[in-house]
Amino acid sequence: MVEDFNIRDSLWDLSFLHHLFIGNDLIIIADSFHLSLLFPTNQVPTRYTDNINDSNSVIDLMFLQCNSSILNNHSIHPEWYLSSDHAPLTITISILDEFINTCKSTIQKNKIEEKQFVNDTISAIKNLDVSNLLDILLLEKAINDSSKNIDNAWNKNAKLTNITKHSKRWWDNNCSRDLEKYRSSKSLENWKFFCKTVKNTKRTFFDLKIMEIANKKQGP
To answer: pLDDT digit string (tens) for 149-158?
Structure first.
């Protein structure tokens, strides 16, 4: 929460000698939103006056999440206020590096790889040794072995594909087939047929998704 609050108070302005009840009110309101007053790295005014009878003041404040060990101060930049009479306030927020996966591992439905994966998974479960589960350590080993075998079955049959902005979960082999027909012929008839295939495919896909969500949430 950052604002010109237009409140002078000794709590945040060292050059001001008075503490007012309205300053307490502001702190209480901010605290109700789990925000606390930040103190600047440089104790300088935030508002600069052209009137020699007035003094510069600190009336621009910044509040952030309470008890943050990372975001706990800000900076005031009096050299940036230019034609304004208020100095800008800045805070530096560190952004951690994030790994973004550009590939995904998939097995297409109703393909031979899907059937092989199911068969390999069934075999892994059937061959799992559960005859000597005498304690929790042996149980955990059996579970880990089962997990490794299923992972191996997946990696053996899955195909890596690139994730792009054009990736569509509803796209299937029928769409690819009819698109290729149109590209080969460039005919209006095949284009219309391709559009119809896409429309029907999307409708089927999203109808199933809606049904899944409705069944899961027990409501529309």
So the answer is: 999 999 999 9
The model carries a pTM of 0.44
Shared domain check, 40 and 117: no
Tens of pLDDT along 196-213?
Answer: 999 999 999 888 888 887
Domain CATH number, residue 48: 3.60.10.10
Question: How many domains in the chain?
Answer: 3
Which has the closest alpha carbon to 150: 134, 171, 126, 169? 126
Residue corresponding to tokens 């995904």: 104
Helix (H) or strand (E) holding 164: none
* Residues comprising the chain, all counted: 220
Domain region containing 187: 168-220
Contact 3, 89 (CB under 8 A): no
